[in-house]
Design goal:
The chain is α+β, with helices and mostly antiparallel strands and 80 residues long. It has one domain (2-66): Arc Repressor Mutant, subunit A, CATH 1.10.10.10. It has four helices and three strands; from the N terminus they run H-E-H-H-E-E-H. A three-stranded antiparallel sheet has the order 1-3-2. Strand 2 (47-50) and strand 3 form a beta hairpin. The chain starts with a helix and ends in a 14-residue tail after the last helix.
């Protein structure tokens, strides 16, 4: 959502030039665990992850899985 707001994503698709090892290091997970998690997301048709390109295939499903609440992003400001 934030990437689309700043023009770095379109149609729920964006580049993520990080390896699964790099992602694991950043999150404190092994590359094997990251690979398993990505595989689960693919199997459930929530995301398509090809090389460094990620496409959210099922936004409502991913939102439900992550219990995501976009209001924390404060993309819509209330008038004063």
């Amino acid at each position: 959502v934030r990437l689309e707001v700043v023009g770095l994503a379109a149609n729920l698709s964006y580049d993520l030039p990080l390896s699964q090892t790099m992602i694991g290091d950043a999150l404190g997970l092994s590359a094997v665990h990251v690979s398993r998690l990505v595989g689960e997301l693919r199997e459930r048709n929530l995301v398509d992850w090809t090389q460094s390109r990620i496409t959210i295939a099922n936004w409502p499903g991913l939102v439900a899985e992550a219990d995501f609440d976009p209001t924390y992003l404060r993309l819509h400001r209330e008038p004063v």
